[in-house]
Amino acid sequence: MMKEGEHLVVSAPGKVILHGEHAVVHGKRALACSLNLRTYLHVTPSTDGMVRMNLPDINIYREWKVEDLTRLFANKTQSEGIAFHSLLSSFGSKVMLPKSN
Question: Is there a contact between 15 and 35 (Cβ–Cβ < 8 Å)?
């Protein structure tokens, strides 16, 4: 569980699938290339029961109440619900994505 003042940063490399993105689910081949770009996720705990998402490069900011998200995902399949509950629990059920400077 994350504590007040702690934060988590993860990143993933960029990629582009030039051909066959959906075909791979049917056992076919696809052509993918890496990009010189990365996606970053910055997570910090919050005490106000809100989940916030900030995508400054595309000018999108959203926020949700944790209780609303919990209700929304309660109707998903068992494995989806467990995954969402585990995610929230790992961040103390209250996470916040920080605003950009």
Answer: yes
- Count Cβ atoms below 10 Å from residue 46 Cβ, excluding itself: 21
Q: Of 43, 41, 42, 51, whose CA–CA distance to 94 is shortest?
A: 51
Q: Each residue of 39-67: pLDDT tens digit? A: 888 888 888 888 888 888 888 898 988 88
Strand partners, 8: 43
**β-pairing, 50-55 with 31-45?**
unpaired
**Which amino acid is it at 71?**
R
State the Cα–Cα distance between residues 62 and 94, nearest whole angstrom.
15
Three-state SS for 34? strand
Is 3 within 8 Å of 22 (Cβ atoms)?
no
Residue type, 55: L
Length of the chain: 101
